[in-house]
Amino acid sequence: MDGVGSWWILVETTTWTHREWELVRTVPVDDDRDRALARAAELARTCGASGGDSDDPGATGRRVFRVSETNWLVEITHSRWDESTRSPSTTTTHVRVSAAVLEHAHEPPPAEPPPPGPLRRAFGRG
Hints:
There is one protein chain. The chain is 15% helix and 41% strand. It is built from two helices and five strands; from the N terminus they run ββαβββα. The chain has a five-stranded antiparallel β-sheet with strand order 2-1-5-4-3, with helices on one face. β4 (71-82) and β5 form a beta hairpin.
């Protein structure tokens, strides 16, 4: 399943500080392209604003845009009552869902402690 050629669902959200996209979830998909596309479309309709599974997808507003055959842009709107202003407050977040094929994978080599040397001894670590 983790091998090259396998299908994955990638879920990205925008970061609060920089409004850049951040990969927050990867979901391996058994089977083939059709199954991956169906699973990605399902996640676009049901995921939460953080990209994870939503307990109640109907508790928010949602618009799902199919950007291409394998990509969806989801606009999620949450409305709440703001006691300080005594009025409704609305926030909108965005999630990007994509079905993709893993083309290359390389695990990092295991970390090893650095060899003892002059710098380690100079800083009391030797």
